[in-house]
Specification:
about 1200 residues; Alpha-Beta Plaits; six-stranded antiparallel β-sheet
């Protein structure tokens, strides 16, 4: 079955701003176009729609770069869409459709869509579908110039990746990488679980002892609580009786307080009424005073307005006087202007009549001048005709003379050219002699270059041997560095695990963790667990841990108040129980005499409190916990001392055995792998030292590796320099061959030039003889034209004499006319001046008349305004009289309202005295009620506090407490409570959560044992999976490598027209990691490495390799993007022939600008960019190549 790509559709992808369609047929479809037209965007689009996720492989930096970004004439688009349409009539794709459309769309917002036949799907669905048809990730569907560069510039290890993709083992490598990651996680988990199990195992033994001790404590504590509850219930009964008595007395006082309060309310109401009346009287007085003040203010304003109006009347009268004076002045000016206007009009009439007389005289003189001009024109026409004829004679004469000069010039040029040719002939002969010498020198240089090429090859071979030795040294350094790194990672991992356990309080009980992680105001008062505040030398750690047991987890606090708040917090959080050691309540228990004596016995290390180091403020705590514990070297010594002191001592050995007062012994074997609590800190410090040493060793190895890299770089540089020198020598050889060919061509060219020069000299001799005959004829014509020209000159002289006479007459007439016109113009200008003066006088008179009208209007306006001011003054006088009447009435009202106000004040003073007495008596009653209320509150608080103690301290309801009530007198209860407290104290420190903690630790230990077993099984399983993957990859890679090598050799021979090539493994013993070298032997050359070939040979070799991948894993179609760019014309032709042959089984889409490749096309599409930034297509289909 053959899957055919039938059509390509794109919209908005890169430079394809408009919807673009490309038809593809079987065989080869070529896409051509100038650089920058967007033809490579087609291969990018195909790569993208087939599932490419790395935008850099599409020559972009971010997703929106593949969406049309706009141009000077177009706005950017918001979406890019590409569709590939396949002919599925053979059902190569497992879909029940004859045509399958695969579409990918991306929006500028970043959203993507994938579709099959216009139905949305996932990218994985498309990839799975294409894989079925041989278009998966491992196929060579797209071969671009970047692929050529990648192979050329890659190292052998990097080149291996191409073979892995072709062999299809990339997915196995991903699976192996994931399995190795899981294996590493599993090993980390194994170490962590083993560490935690060791920690838990060290806690189980002391916890079992502490749990038994806690059970005895719980029994005595329960009895103590019953006694304390009974005491509390007795207190509650007494307090409730006092509350009843105080409530009765309070009710009696309350009835008297109510009566006095009623009388006080009535008195205060009357007082408030009088206060309101007083405020009303005050308001009336204020209103009257406000009105009087307002009238006074208005009167003052009217007086000011009167003064302003009187001043305005004076000013306006003065203005009227000025206007009347102006009217008289303007009238006199009007009379003067009328007189001047009459005089100017008389003068204008006289001047105009005189000018008309002169105008008539000018007309007669112009008629005589016109006749003279006519006669002049006739003679001038005759003279012009004569001059034209003379000019014709002169022109013909000049033409003949020019011809003669031209002939002389041609003769001179021919002579000059003849001399030049003779010189060139001599130079050519000299050049021929020089070229013969140059050819001999060039041949000697060619021989020297061949010897240099051979020496360069020998030097390169030596450098390659040195490089292989240095690379082997690098492998050794890398192996050693890997081992040290692994040890460093193990130490670092162990240190991090212990550090995390310290930070997470691993091994502490739930209650202790809750307190240490609490975020509360009392938290700074928690100073830490006992295990956190003491340090012990390594040799005493086991003994001290045994002596402390569960006390290692006791919390030290600043005072008992902090302990109480922490216990309340534990109850609130339900986080278990914790033993607290308040520094202000811990009593020092110094060792007794017999314990001091025992510490001096042989084999005794000392008292346990003397073996630990801690801060001075914790000294009482360590003495309290360890002051009476003796540490000895071994169990034998412990038994001897215990018998001597009648088993009254608490003794521990350095190996962790313990002898209790009374004779019991604890000991045995522990499977612990490391210390807990105390030993963890010392191990962390040790691991830090080991890690530092390994880091130093790694630094040294890194320095050695950097030195190795520098040596390798220098060697590579030398190798590169030698190769460049060889390439330079090869280039010189090529250039020298060109010089030899050019010199031979110059020799042939010069011989041909000599022959041409001889022929041209013969032609010049013949042309010179012809030119001398033409010159003789031309000289005869020149003599004839000169005679005719002299005769015609005499006739023209006669006509010019008559012309001068007529011109003199014309000048006389013209002068007379000019004089008459000047006089006429003068009279005309004088008349116009007088007419202008008259116009000015008329304008001035109109202006003065208008001014008189304006002055009369201003006078009438001022008179009207004066009349208005006088009327306003009269109105102001009337207003002032009315205001004075209102002011007298307001002053009388103010006196009456003030008298009423004084009467109200007298009544208020009497009522205030009565109200004050009632308030005093009410206050006394309320004080007594308050005292009774305080008494009730006090006893109610005692009752409530008793209930809270039952609830919070004893966690009991009243009914439950009454069930625990003991029928004993007060003294018996106190005695029993004291006895129980003594017995509980004698037990020493108790871990309340020991029982729960022991069960929890035991369950967790068993759970972790099962987890450890499961992890071991998982590790074995992962190792088996990794082994199977390695086996599968090795077999698949070897098989694929062999087939690709066969294809590579065959395709190389076809493309080069001979020669041979192969790919080989750098390290055949390391199939999974070895690099791959390419060795070739072009026709007529020896076998060599890829790097030593010329640029075109290297490119063609890589093309052969890439097509060998395609041969191993065929694809239905293949897009080839300008991979022929570096090939010369001969190689392009071979590549084109190979492509035509290969197109019988694979459909090709070729982007190229090489003519040879274009000739292989069955169909051709041209890409142009007529509009800036927008690509367009032009298509041509070739039905028959032969045609």
């Amino acid at each position: 079955m053959f899957l055919l790509l039938r059509k390509f559709e794109a919209y908005g992808f890169k430079s394809f701003a408009d919807k673009t369609e490309l038809e593809f047929g079987p065989g080869i479809t070529v896409i051509v176009g100038p650089n920058g037209s967007g033809k490579s965007n087609i291969s990018d689009a195909i790569r993208w729609v087939l599932g490419e996720q790395n935008i850099r492989n599409l020559r972009g930096a971010k997703t929106e770069d593949i969406i049309f970004a706009g141009s000077t004439k177009r706005r950017p688009l918001g979406v890019a869409e590409v569709s590939l349409i396949f002919d599925n009539s053979d059902h190569a794709l497992p879909l029940d459709y004859n045509e399958v459309i695969i579409t990918r769309r991306v929006f500028r917002s970043g959203e993507s869509e994938y579709m099959i036949n216009k139905s949305l799907c996932r990218l994985k669905d498309i990839q799975d579908l294409l894989t079925e048809a041989g278009l998966g990730r491992e196929s060579m569907t797209i071969i671009g110039q970047n692929k050529i560069d990648e192979v050329l510039n890659s190292k052998p290890e990097e080149r291996r990746l191409l073979f892995e993709e072709a062999a299809g083992i990339t997915k196995y490598k991903h699976r192996k990488k994931e399995a190795l990651r899981k294996l590493d996680d599993t090993e980390q988990n194994l170490v962590r679980v083993a560490d935690i199990m060791a920690e838990l195992e060290t806690q189980l033994t002391p916890l079992s002892e502490s749990a038994a001790k806690t059970e005895q404590y719980n029994t005595w504590h329960h009895e103590l609580v019953a006694c304390q509850v009974t005491q509390l219930l007795n207190k509650l009964q007494r307090a409730q009786q006092m509350v009843t008595s105080a409530n009765a007395e309070r009710e009696a006082f309350e009835s008297g307080r109510i009566e006095m309060t009623t009388r006080l309310s009535v008195s205060e109401a009357e007082l408030e009424k009088l206060t309101a009346e007083l405020q009303a009287a005050d308001s009336q007085v204020s209103v009257c005073e406000t009105e009087i003040n307002g009238i006074h203010t208005e009167t003052e304003r009217l007086d000011g307005r009167t003064a302003v109006l009187e001043e305005r009347i004076v000013q306006k009268n003065q203005a009227i006087e000025r206007i009347q004076a102006d009217i008289l002045r303007v009238g006199e000016q009007v009379r003067q202007i009328q007189q001047k206007l009459a005089e100017s009009q008389t003068g204008f009439t006289e001047k105009r009549d005189h000018a008309l007389q002169f105008n008539n005289t000018v007309i007669l003189a112009e008629a005589e001048l016109s006749e003279t001009n006519r006669q002049l024109a006739a003679i001038e026409e005759q003279i012009a005709q004569g001059r034209d004829q003379a000019f014709d004679y002169l022109q013909e004469l000049a033409g003949e003379k020019n011809s003669l000069q031209s002939l002389d010039r041609q003769t001179t040029q021919l002579a000059s050219r003849q001399r030049q040719l003779q010189t060139e002939q001599a130079n050519c002969n000299l050049q021929l002699e020089q070229i013969d010498g140059t050819l001999g020198q060039l041949q000697e240089q060619q021989s020297a270059l061949r010897r240099n090429m051979q020496l360069a090859d020998e030097k390169i071979q030596v450098l390659y041997q040195q490089k292989q030795s240095l690379e082997q040294k690098g492998f050794s350094l890398a192996s050693e560095e890997k081992q040290v790194t692994q040890r460093w990672n193990e130490s670092k991992s162990r240190w991090q695990i212990l550090q995390n356990m310290q930070q997470d309080y691993e091994g502490f009980g739930q209650g202790i963790k809750s307190i240490l992680k609490a975020q509360a105001d009392w938290r700074p008062g928690v100073l830490g667990a006992v295990a956190q505040v003491i340090s012990v030398p390594a040799e005493y750690v086991l003994a001290v841990e045994t002596a402390l047991g569960a006390a290692l987890q006791h919390l030290i606090v600043e005072n008992d108040s902090v302990a109480k708040k922490a216990i309340d917090y534990l109850k609130q959080q339900k986080s278990g129980r914790v033993t607290f050691l308040p520094l202000n309540t811990i009593q020092l228990r110094p060792p007794r005499d017999f314990e001091r004596n025992a510490a001096k016995e042989a084999g005794v290390v000392g008292l346990a409190s003397q073996l630990v180091h801690t801060d001075a403020k914790f000294a009482n705590v360590t003495e309290y916990l360890l002051g009476r514990t003796v540490v000895v070297k071994d169990l034998e010594t412990a038994l001897t001392i215990a018998r001597k002191y009648s088993y009254s001592l608490r003794i521990v050995t350095l190996d962790g055995e313990q002898l209790h007062p009374g004779g019991s012994v604890t000991g045995g074997v522990s499977n612990r792998k490391e210390s807990s609590f105390l030993g963890r800190a010392s191990e962390i410090e040790s691991l830090q030292q080991v890690t530092a040493q390994l880091s130093s060793q790694l630094s040294q190895l890194n320095a050695a590796r950097e030195q190795w890299k520098e040596e390798l770089a220098n060697l590579n540089q030398a190798l590169s320099a030698q190769s460049e020198e060889k390439n330079g020598t090869r280039l010189q050889s090529v250039q020298l061959e060109g010089s030899v060919a050019k010199t031979a061509a110059d020799q042939e060219r010069i011989c041909l030039t000599l022959k041409t020069i001889e022929e041209e000299i013969l032609i010049i001799e013949q042309e010179k003889m012809a030119l001398e005959e033409k010159a003789a004829l031309t000289r005869q014509k020149i003599v004839e034209f000169e005679n005719r020209s002299h005769q015609h000159k005499d006739q023209v002289s006669q006509w010019q004499s008559a012309l001068k006479t007529l011109q003199g007459n014309r000048e006389i007439y013209a002068a007379r006319i000019t004089d008459l016109k000047v006089k006429y113009t003068t009279l005309e200008q004088e008349a116009l001046a007088l007419e202008g003066i008259c116009g000015k006088y008329r304008t001035d008179m109109d202006s003065y008349v208008h001014q008189l009208k304006s002055l009369n209007q201003d006078q009438e306006t001022w008179l009207g305004e004066i009349q208005g001011c006088r009327q306003e003054l009269q109105s102001i006088v009337e207003t002032k009289n009315d205001l004075l009447s209102r002011k007298a009435l307001a002053e009388n009202n103010r006196k009456e309202f003030y008298a009423n106000k004084m009467a109200i004040l007298s009544g208020m003073q009497k009522l205030e005295a009565e109200t004050k007495e009632l308030r005093r008596r009410c206050h006394e009653t309320e004080n007594r009620l308050h005292e009774l209320q305080l008494m009730v509150t006090k006893y109610e608080y005692e009752v409530n506090y008793g209930f809270e103690q039952l609830k919070d301290h004893f966690c009991l309801t009243l009914e439950a407490a009454q069930e625990m009530y003991l029928k004993e007198d007060h003294h018996s209860l106190a005695s029993r409570i004291k006895q129980l407290e003594f017995e509980i104290t004698a037990l020493g420190p108790i871990n309340p959560g020991a029982i729960e903690e022991y069960i929890r630790i035991k369950d967790r230990f068993e759970f972790l044992q099962q987890q450890y077993k499961d992890l071991v099984e998982a590790k074995d399983c992962l190792l088996s999976v990794i082994f199977d993957i390695d086996q599968t990859m090795s077999k698949q890679f070897i098989a694929a490598f062999a087939q690709i090598n066969e294809h590579f050799s065959d395709i190389f021979t076809r493309l080069f027209g001979g020669g041979k090539a192969e790919v080989c493994l750098v390290d055949p013993d390391n199939i999974l990691e070895t690099g791959i070298e390419i060795t070739v032997q072009p026709p007529g050359k020896k076998q060599q490495n890829l790097a030593l070939l010329s640029g075109g040979e290297r490119a063609l070799t890589v093309i052969a390799l890439l097509f060998s991948f395609l041969a191993y894993r065929p694809a239905p179609f293949c897009a080839v993007d300008e991979i022929d760019a570096a090939l010369d014309e001969a190689n392009v032709q071979r590549f084109s022939e190979f492509l035509k042959d290969y197109a019988k089984k694979t459909q090709f889409i070729v982007v190229t600008h090489r003519k040879g490749t274009m000739e292989s096309a069955d169909m051709m599409h041209g890409v142009t960019m007529e509009e800036s930034g927008v690509s367009r297509l032009v298509s041509v289909k070739f039905m028959d190549r032969a045609g």
